[in-house]
Amino acid sequence: MRDVAIIGIGMRKCGELWDKSIKDLFVESALDAIDDAGVDHIDSMYIGCMTGGLFVGQEHLASMLSDHLGVNPIPACRVESACCSGGLALRQGFIDVASGMNDIVLVSGVEKMTDVGGDEATYALATASDQDYEAFQGVTFPGLYAMIARSHMDKYGTTREQLASVAVKNHANGSLNPLAQFPMKITVESVLNSVLVADPLRILDCSPITDGAAAAIICPLDKAKELSKNLPIKISGTGHATDTIALHDRADITYLKSTEIAAKIAYKMAGVGPDDIDFAEVHDCFTIAEICVIEALGFVEVGKGGSASESGLTALNGKKPINTSGGLKSKGHPVGATGIAQLYEVVEQLRGNAGKRQLDKPKRGLTQNMGGTGGSTVVHIMEVV
Amino acid sequence: MRDVAIIGIGMRKCGELWDKSIKDLFVESALDAIDDAGVDHIDSMYIGCMTGGLFVGQEHLASMLSDHLGVNPIPACRVESACCSGGLALRQGFIDVASGMNDIVLVSGVEKMTDVGGDEATYALATASDQDYEAFQGVTFPGLYAMIARSHMDKYGTTREQLASVAVKNHANGSLNPLAQFPMKITVESVLNSVLVADPLRILDCSPITDGAAAAIICPLDKAKELSKNLPIKISGTGHATDTIALHDRADITYLKSTEIAAKIAYKMAGVGPDDIDFAEVHDCFTIAEICVIEALGFVEVGKGGSASESGLTALNGKKPINTSGGLKSKGHPVGATGIAQLYEVVEQLRGNAGKRQLDKPKRGLTQNMGGTGGSTVVHIMEVV
């Protein structure tokens, strides 16, 4: 397999973008990535999108979006794995380049979520859970993650304040990110006083409904310098794993097994361990999710995710900064785009372009993107070479 | 890139399978393929499905189906390109094996279409067209293909009887296929007297709404004999191309450019031309589609697709047999599964297992699977080595 590098990225501000269609969102970010890389064509493209069918009545995005980007007849492939559709697009693009099939590949994600009302959006998102045994019974994602949170609190003594500290940190980071949907700073007190959604989770524990897109250009590492003037970022590890779709089928609902397995594969491929990762963008769809994720990634001991956040370990100036972009929580969570938006932040940090939230010369970052309650996870490790 | 071979296939009878869920359909065909190959595990899997969201309220099929097949935590990827989702799953699995990332890969397709009513199914299928400029205006697929048919008749003198001859041939073939949904023989007269759907297309010009699944096991060609006792079938060519999603954006609506381009790429990779193909399974979602497809594949001169069918060239005992399985028309069209169902027939023919519809020792077959009105096409060439 050939080594693969990222040479271009594109992303615009997330939000409730009622004046833009799914085509506009995709094309803007794709053109930005192509311009950033400085390439004059692309050979193939991958699009992560969770459910164009339920959100905008549009499937067949591979044809639709290659058409509107003006690049047909190139091969275009839409992939879906709920909220890790973006990460999966990156992985499949990686395999495409690594195989030798194509050289210059666009990997992207897009979701247009606000064209439907709240009930319809909740229904659409619930199709990422087990329709027969979870969604059909009326359980939605805040409820599922609330069960995980309650169980983590019972088992490890995780506190309500620790959950809140994740949101506070991510909004602090998001306040420094011009692309964030909700860049306001918040406090532990404001989280605790916000409206209850599914006990113990409150509205400020939840990531928002978001329109957005992100894109990147990848190519063989050994052609990166010839194709682009940008610092090539090597994708040194990729891992992908699945778990039961339904929460009730797991031995321990607080442990994200697919994340552990995907991370171990990626670490092995990159020849590194959790301690070698300078910073990470992880899937904080709810505050409890970030806590469970950093445990499964091996960044902290199992059961210590809450205290790690509260102590500042994962803060911008901490030992292991997590979600410097603001994460899904503050930056926004356009579900199919999130995995590529994570890549965008890692590349910005590695290039030294992260502005007010720039870390001190990081060399290696990780992205962890998951679907549902962890029924699927994709992990990538990216580094300066 | 490594050479890739098919070593196992699985498929059951298509139909209105109200006693089976999408999980059942997928698992049955996947287990059949695994049993047929005789492998004791799989390394990764690809699932083609057009719209689990709109048909059964279930996305995140990668997690759902790896779970219910009992193979999690392996990587699982759902791909979608409308009615060529199955062909795309085969292509992405091919790239996965060719790259060296995985050895034993399940490629599959599934669609459970009859849990919704006719209006909802028509809406779901229309999301493969341009929602803003086609579906929103009320044009559905029979209407789009009717425009193609009328244009082909005007431009080339194609007759109503020639369209009917495609359906008659495919039902004759399907009558010899135990897996066909509609195995009854029909006549030109019965097609011409069937109910009008969208002038000039009548109900017997249209493929049906179908529940079904199909699966195959692929692996590196050089490991095929060690992994399975079956005759390895080499995938000698793969081609994938896109076109405008909307019909009105094309210079000539009777010509399937994405099919021409995908086929040319596959021919080049396999080192063959149209004349070297012994038989083919093609996307006859409507009778006019098969006519346009065999022209774009280079099997017949442009404009001669109708007369080729009427003259018997494409019949089971003709010079270039097309859709020996009965095609989408008679065998059924579970949209996401169709591309893999085509592979199933080609492998059955190449193995000499096609029963009453067996061709005389064919050596090389082709599958052509397309999305929408040809907004995307995937072509594969398979041969005995």
Could you write a compact summary of the structure shown?
The structure is a homodimer of 385-residue chains. By secondary structure, chain A is an alpha/beta fold.
Instruction: Please tell me how large the radius of gyration of chain A is.
Output: 19 Å
User: Largest sheet of chain A at a glance?
Assistant: 9 strands, mixed
CATH superfamily of the largest domain in chain A: Thiolase/Chalcone synthase
**Shape label of chain A:** globular
- CATH C-level of the largest domain in chain A: Alpha Beta
The multimeric state of the shown protein is homodimer
Largest interface: A-B, 63 and 63 residues
Q: Under the CATH scheme, which architecture of the largest domain in chain A would be assigned? A: 3-Layer(aba) Sandwich
Strand content of chain A: 15-25%
